[in-house]
Design goal:
Helix content of chain B: 10-25%
Distance between the termini of chain A: 42 Å
Distance between the termini of chain B: 78 Å
Radius of gyration of chain A: 18 Å
CATH superfamily of the largest domain in chain A: RNA polymerase sigma factor, region 2, helix turn helix motif
CATH topology of the largest domain in chain A: Rna Polymerase Sigma Factor, Chain: A
Oligomer: heterodimer
Number of domains of chain A: 2
Shape of chain B: globular
Strand content of chain B: over 45%
Largest interface: A-B, 53 and 45 residues
CATH architecture of the largest domain in chain A: Orthogonal Bundle
Structural class of chain B: mainly beta
Largest sheet of chain A: 2 strands, parallel
Largest sheet of chain B: 7 strands, antiparallel
Strand content of chain A: under 5%
Structural class of chain A: mainly alpha
Strand order of the largest sheet of chain A: 1-2
Number of strands of chain A: 2
Number of helices of chain A: 9
Low-confidence stretches of chain A: 109-113
Number of helices of chain B: 4
Helix content of chain A: over 70%
Shape of chain A: globular
Number of strands of chain B: 46
Chain lengths: ~180, ~650
């Protein structure tokens, strides 16, 4: 079923909307949550919460890109759960991603202002548009989808070592972009 | 750095543009499609394979029927094909300078203190190629002995320094001792190069090593005068001389994790001093090979033997497994690895001036995965490649190695592999030959490169690691014709030789030469008619496809004693070899040596006849093989001399 047909089902308050969402995007949502939390049961809980949130948000919303919208919702839910539980050292996936992203944090020497979340997203967005397509895909699949480096290396037919170093260069490139914008997190 | 900051960044990534997110997911779908199409091609290839297997299965039988002289198992090649590969104009796609690499490794260094070698240097092995791929140049390796250009004096590494002998046939005598420790010596015109390893710092348990290259003026041959000195940080990996150029390789490695061992990036460059003055290494002297997972390098310095100036220098940073070299090239086999994966090797080639000429990725040529997963940091699964020997012939690099498949943590299948590659045109050919069922645990014990072929001695364990384990050797021949490669497997069995008398080497490649070319396709190889090597087998290898044994020594030529693998070919029908007189002590104590000269007459009833046996000077308290006592023979002005570390002077063999 096409995404706009699924959204129509939500607008018609037809519970089949959830079934179709699960059929088409269930695995996608699960993988994002699992990549952050590493625990199947917790990921499943996030996916169910995502369907619930979709049911509440559509209508009035009509997402233009349904999959990206769903991904963002599940990501936020998984992040919240991670925040809630990570002090118990329950999750390793997100910790790994965060530790990698430390490379992107601008040096405090460049501080001009503490940046708002929305503005930060715009800068990251601009940077993503400025880099080449393959790098863009790699960055998003690693830090948005949370796909493991090893899997990503298989997808792109390169060795994990080579990819790890390419990702490092991308992170440094983002750091430079943030520093150029005078960002303080 | 606070976790809050990284979380903020992570959260901001959540809301990036829909189009970017969608693009990234679409690529994934394409990836799946690509896999499907590969499967389709895979299915077609599988059909061809089935067809090929059917043809190959039938072919040897039909050939056998038509020509009974061809053994049915003469060839069982898996694949023989030509490939084009992408030319590499730089050694690393990721790094253009050492600081860039260090910046990455400072937080991602895989030094695995438990299993990997963080010191980097000690685990690099070297393999030289001595066949004449460049007729104008000769590659001279350290044998512990060097001859003055006048041919009137020899220098050899003795127990109390470098001994100087005046060569005068039976009147040869020691004329002086140069009181200096040495690992290798070379001469070039009026210069004597003395290479020695020494501890330059650190502690006894964790020593920092350096190598000193001292250059002595030997205008007066018997009175060397120190005139120049280089000191290079690291462990001595190899040194050799080509023409007037001395190649010196040291290897070192340090943990870059948090810049823990060194406080200054500049110290991660190799350190070289000339007469106490530092010689600067810049990024132009550095080649980063692939994507290293630790800081490990081999520094190559080329010193001109006449001017004593550094002509070239290059530091190769990478996960170097082996270095290969010949008269006008150096190659490094590199395999990135961590606890989780191991890359199949890529070979990086450099010319004699240390300029990068190209690289090949063995996995891409053979068409297997470039990386294998490791379980528990050591158990491999997948297709594992190794390159054990490399040579260069005209514009082509030729390589010999193995292809091993591991499934469910067990060795599943092993094949022998030969590759020919032109790194300037991007063309390669390769051939695989299945190791036969029943003896998958095979290893090369010796590889003899010739102009257009390689003769491989393969050691075979019939049943590995069991009580009824038996060992034998077989010969394989690899004929090269440009990029075309043909394996010839023979049924000729030979003694399994994996060590010298009294010493067993785990992997003797490059350490000893048991196969002796006598000329015109005739070869001798040491055999074990008794407890030690005491005989020779005589072969006709003039036609690789029809190699045959001419004579096998049934009873020991050396009586109760044993030969060691030191030989000298006088002419096509005369061979000399070292005999170790074992005496009554099984533990190789109080050993005497003799030089035995045999005539070789394939058409005679007595194929090997002793011409002379000369007892050599000295009584060796504990014998660990000729290598250990620094034994060498050399021919000067029609006199054959021998020399050993325990002797003060060369002696002529009568």
């Amino acid at each position: 079923m096409e995404d706009n047909q699924i959204i129509d089902l939500y607008w018609q308050r037809d519970e089949q909307a959830i079934v179709e969402t699960s059929k088409k995007h269930g695995a996608f949502c699960h993988s994002i949550a699992k990549n952050i939390l590493c625990i199947d049961e917790d990921a499943e809980e996030c996916v169910n919460d995502t369907y619930h949130q979709a049911w509440n948000a559509i209508p009035p919303q009509r997402p233009a890109k349904f999959r990206a919208w769903l991904g963002r919702v599940v990501r936020n839910i998984a992040l919240n759960l991670w925040n809630k539980n990570h002090t118990q050292k329950r999750y390793s996936g997100m910790s790994e991603l965060l530790s990698e992203l430390e490379d992107c944090i601008p040096s405090s020497k460049t501080v001009e202002q503490e940046i708002e979340d929305k503005e930060l997203t715009e800068i990251v967005d601009r940077w993503l548009h400025s880099i080449d397509r393959e790098d863009q895909v790699l960055f998003v699949r690693r830090y948005w989808n949370g796909i493991a480096l090893k899997e990503l290396a298989k997808e792109h037919a390169v060795s994990p070592g080579k990819l790890s170093q390419r990702m490092y260069r991308l992170r440094i490139s983002l750091k430079t972009a943030l520093e150029k914008e005078g960002v303080h997190l | 750095m606070s976790e809050k900051e990284t979380q903020k960044l992570y959260s901001s990534i959540t809301n990036i543009s829909d189009d970017i997110i969608e693009n990234a997911q679409v690529v994934s779908v394409n990836g799946q499609k690509k896999k499907k199409s590969l499967k389709k091609w895979g299915a077609v290839a599988a059909c061809f394979c089935i067809l090929a297997v059917a043809v190959l299965t039938c072919l040897p039988l039909s050939r056998f029927v038509e020509d009974p002289s061809i053994p049915p198992n003469e060839t069982s090649e898996l694949a023989n094909s030509e490939k084009e590969f992408t030319l590499a104009n730089k050694t690393s796609e990721s790094y253009s300078s050492l600081p860039e690499l260090l910046s990455y490794l400072s937080t991602n260094d895989f030094h695995d203190t438990g299993k990997a070698d963080a010191s980097g240097g000690s685990n690099i092995s070297t393999v030289s190629e001595k066949s004449g791929e460049n007729e104008n140049l000769e590659l001279i390796e350290n044998e512990g002995v060097a001859i003055h250009y006048s041919m009137e004096y020899s220098y050899h590494i003795g127990e109390s320094g470098i001994q100087i002998s005046q060569l005068d046939g039976l009147n040869t005598k020691n004329v002086d001792t140069l009181d200096v420790a040495a690992n290798a010596i070379f001469t070039c015109n009026n210069n004597l190069f003395v290479i020695s390893q020494f501890q330059s710092g650190g502690s006894e348990l964790d020593p920092e090593l350096s190598v000193r290259a001292s250059i002595y003026d030997i205008t007066v041959p018997q009175r060397p005068v120190l005139k120049d000195e280089y000191v290079q940080l690291g462990e001595l990996t190899a040194c050799w001389m080509v023409g007037a150029d001395l190649y010196l390789i040291t290897s070192d490695g340090v943990c870059a994790c948090g810049w823990s061992r060194l406080d200054d990036v500049s110290k991660y460059y190799p350190a070289l001093a000339h007469n106490g003055e530092a010689v600067a290494w810049g990024d132009e002297d550095v080649s980063i090979l692939g994507e290293p997972t630790r800081v490990q390098y081999s520094a190559i310095t080329v010193i001109n033997g006449n001017t004593c100036e550094v002509e070239e220098k290059k530091a190769l940073y990478g996960n170097i497994l082996k270095l290969f070299y010949g008269t006008d090239w150096v190659a490094a086999s590199v395999s990135g690895n961590t606890d989780e994966y191991r890359e199949n090797p890529s070979i990086y080639f450099f010319d004699g001036g240390l300029g990068f000429t190209g690289k090949i990725n063995a996995a891409k040529i053979i068409d297997v995965s470039e990386t294998n997963d490791l379980t528990d940091g050591r158990i491999i699964s997948g297709d594992d490649l190794s390159i054990v020997s490399v040579t260069k012939h005209n514009d082509l690099y030729r390589m010999i190695g193995t292809y091993t498949n591991y499934a469910d943590s067990k060795l599943n299948k092993q094949s022998f592999m030969a590759i020919a590659a032109n790194v300037e045109t991007g063309k390669a050919g390769y051939t695989l030959l299945d190791a036969k069922d029943g003896y998958p645990y095979s290893s090369f014990t010796e590889i003899l490169w010739e102009d257009d072929r390689a003769i491989l001695c393969v050691g075979i364990m019939n049943h590995a690691f069991t009580a009824d384990m038996t060992q034998e050797s077989r010969f394989l021949f690899v004929d090269f014709d440009s990029l075309g490669i043909t394996f010839h497997e023979t049924d000729l069995r030979a003694a399994y030789l994996d060590g010298r008398v009294g010493v067993t080497y785990g992997s003797p490649m490059g350490n000893f030469n048991t196969l002796i070319p006598m000329g015109k396709g005739i070869y001798l190889r040491y055999s074990y008619p008794a407890e030690g090597p005491g005989g020779f087998d005589l072969y006709d290898f003039s036609d690789s496809a029809a190699a045959k044994l001419i004579h096998h020594t049934e009873s020991s030529l050396s009586g109760a004693d044993a030969f060691d693998y030191v030989w000298y070919v006088y002419d096509q029908n005369t061979i000399g070899t070292l005999k170790v007189i074992l005496g009554e002590d099984d533990y190789f104590r109080n050993v005497k040596l003799a030089w035995c000269k045999y005539s070789v007459n394939p058409n005679s009833e007595e194929v090997f006849s002793l011409i002379s046996e000369t007892q050599l000077e000295g009584n060796i308290k504990t014998f660990f093989g000729a290598d250990a006592i620094g034994f060498a023979v050399f021919d000067i002005n029609d006199n054959l001399y021998y020399i050993a570390r325990y002797m003060d002077s060369a002696v002529v063999i009568q």
